[in-house]
Amino acid sequence: xxxxxxxxxxxxxxxxxxxxxxxxxxxxxxxxxxxxxxxxxxxxxxxxxxxxxxxxxxxxx
Length: 61
Known about the structure:
With 61 residues, this protein is mostly helical. The chain has four helices and two strands, in the order H-E-H-E-H-H.
């Protein structure tokens, strides 16, 4: 179920962990929060557009 179908408010998707999850969230949400993924992948938009693999987020760095 997509949250936007249930509530009449902006939907923010967070805790994104993989490119396929990000793709689903982009369809379902008004905004996605990619925090750690963007830090681990400064070229995140390019990687998502081209299907390149994502570097894992490393909380130790």
